[in-house]
Design goal:
heterodimer, A: 271 residues, alpha/beta, Rossmann fold, five-stranded mixed sheet, 17% strand, B: ABC transporter involved in vitamin B12 uptake, BtuC, 14 helices
């Protein structure tokens, strides 16, 4: 279940383009991750996307593309029915199997890593190469690369904890995209000593680390239901109503809008 | 002697679980710390109450179905609770208590169905059908749950499973109070059935000859044990092994007389869960282990050790 839980947050390449000889630029692409769909649109290949997952909701034009399901794991027949000449998959266990199956029926696939900010540039370049749109991909990739640069920043003044789930409390650790977003926006994740992308912790650890903000991926404008639970009131930020409600479509996935996400998070923290 | 030891272990487990935790609280400030008062103390008490309830429910059910494999969750309750929790999320039921209440109702619905199935052969509750019915209803509700989770759009639905196997993170004085008011009723019902449960071990017919109201006892024990388990699942999710292993350990030490077996199972289950939860919170801090993992890791070796001593003796 953990895999599914964070499916929207995660992504990485070891970028394993299939080993067959180069063919012409792909004209019919099925994208099996919202981030890939966004990247394809951003490099100008949006009109070549002929299949997407049900989660691919940006840009709005993507919604008119037929969905091939939730992509977890991919429905091979639904993907093949779109007659793609390229299928872009997130590089993870079940997708590796799916890619092999697609290759077996003669469909080219590419497995891309996309877990962190620094994966964005390479992913954009690979997609550019496969679509013959190298130039636009390169300028996008250069902009995305700069997001993860370790440029000197003013010391972070705000602290926050990302709460993914409340019972048991699951937080975001150092190895994750959201942790990077926080750092780039000038905030410190109080769980940046946890190496894993996410982890179960005790509520008292959250109380002891006393973050100024509780960040939640949420499309709602009201604080999550756990804010009203008695045990959570022990957390100061919960008592004081210091919630950062971050819409999942913008904040939950690395993509061409990651820069916007960082700017918006910085603005929310400044308020 | 046995009792002194058990009570000491139980008290020690409670003290440890209040004194130890991932956040550093100096010993001198233990009694004044907000973390201790509002988080650790209710969690320790809830662990003890839930563990004790599961121990007693397990002991009662094992006697009722006369099957050493019986576990409080074997009779379909976890499946029903899971379905309730998933529905609460899918229907966006509002409020901080929506999930526990929905899980409790789901468990009660499963309980009702299994009970009805158990009566299928006539007016007499058949323990074998109860077991089969429990497994069947459990599988059925799990299938519906999985179907909802895989078909629905909401990504957070998948988190319902996290909740169901969640453990004691939701502990607060509210939940402690709730369980402390609720659990004594089924516990007393089970204790009052001690003598007839002893007789039931001789077989239903013999028990009837010896003057036990076999039908009434079976129904009361089934309902009381299931109501205890339903409350446990609502406040702490499905915590395995406590209800299976603790009654056996208690039986190996205290024998088959339920008058002493049931209180021993309560203290033992409470101590085991409080201790397991302390380990779950501290050994990998700041991370936390699912408490069910720890109960299995402690309970099973202890059980194997006792089993060995018992078969050699």
């Amino acid at each position: 279940m953990r895999r599914c839980l964070f499916a929207l947050l995660i992504f990485s390449v070891g970028c394993r383009p299939s080993g067959r000889p180069a063919v012409g630029p792909s004209q019919r692409i099925v994208s099996l991750l919202p981030s890939f769909t966004e990247l394809l649109f951003a490099i100008g290949a949006g009109d070549r996307v002929v299949g997407r997952t049900q989660w691919c909701d940006y840009p709005p034009a993507a919604l008119s593309i037929p969905s091939v399901g939730d992509g977890l794991p991919p429905n091979i027949e639904a993907v093949a029915a779109r007659k793609p000449d390229l299928v872009v998959l997130y590089n993870a266990g079940p997708n590796v199997t799916a890619a092999k199956q697609l290759e077996r029926i003669g469909i080219r696939t590419v497995l891309l890593d996309l877990d962190r900010l620094e994966d964005l540039g390479p992913a954009a370049r690979t997609l550019g190469r496969l679509t013959g749109l190298e130039q636009r991909a390169e300028s996008l990739a250069a902009a995305l690369d700069s997001l993860s640069l370790d440029r000197p920043r003013p010391p972070s003044t705000a602290t926050l904890a990302f709460i993914v789930w409340d019972n048991p409390p699951i937080i975001i650790g150092h190895g994750s995209y959201l942790d990077q977003l926080a750092t780039q926006a000038g905030a410190r994740n109080v769980f940046d000593d946890v190496a894993a992308p996410s982890a179960q912790v005790s509520l008292e650890t959250i109380v002891a680390r006393d973050p100024q903000w509780i960040a939640v991926l949420s499309d709602s404008a009201v604080p999550p239901a756990f804010a009203k639970r008695r045990e959570w009131r022990a957390v100061r930020a919960v008592r004081e109503g210091h919630f950062l409600l971050l819409p999942g479509s913008l904040f939950g996935r690395p993509g061409p809008r990651s820069g916007d996400a960082i700017r918006q998070l910085r603005a929310k923290l400044a308020r | 002697m046995k009792w002194t030891l058990l009570v000491t272990v139980a008290v020690l487990a409670l003290i440890l679980s209040v004194a130890l935790g991932p956040a550093a609280v100096p010993l001198g400030e233990l009694l004044r710390s907000d973390i201790v008062w509002n988080l650790r103390a209710p969690r320790a008490l809830l662990a003890f109450l839930v563990g004790g309830s599961l121990g007693v429910a397990g002991a009662g059910l094992q006697a009722l179905v006369r099957n050493p494999l019986a576990d409080p969750f074997l009779l379909g309750l976890s499946g029903g609770a899971g379905l309730g929790a998933v529905l609460a999320i899918a229907l966006h039921l509002p409020g901080p208590w929506a999930l526990p209440i929905a899980a409790f109702i789901g468990a009660l619905a499963a309980l009702g169905l299994v009970y009805r199935l158990g009566l299928i052969g006539g007016a007499s509750l058949d323990p074998r059908i109860l077991l089969l019915g429990g497994v069947a209803i459990g599988a059925f509700t799990a299938a519906i749950t999985t179907a909802i989770v895989s078909l629905a759009d909401a990504a957070e639905l998948r988190n319902a499973f996290l909740w169901l196997w969640g453990g004691l993170s939701g502990a607060s004085w509210d939940s402690v109070l709730l369980v402390a008011l609720y659990a004594p009723i089924p516990l007393v019902v089970l204790m009052a059935a001690s003598r007839p449960l002893d007789l039931l071990a001789l077989g239903e017919e013999s028990a009837t000859y010896l003057g036990a109201d076999v039908e009434g006892v079976k129904r009361r024990v089934y309902l009381a044990a299931s109501l205890l388990t339903a409350a446990a699942v609502a406040v702490s999710g499905v915590i395995g092994f406590v209800g299976l292993v603790v009654p056996h350990i208690a039986r190996l030490t205290w024998g088959h007389r339920h008058r002493s077996l049931l209180p021993a199972a309560f203290l033992g289950g409470g101590a085991l869960l409080a201790f397991a939860d302390t380990l779950a919170r501290t050994v990998v801090a700041p991370r936390e282990l699912p408490v069910g993992v720890v109960t299995a890791l402690i309970g099973v070796p202890v059980f194997a050790l006792l089993l060995r001593r018992w078969t050699i003796a």
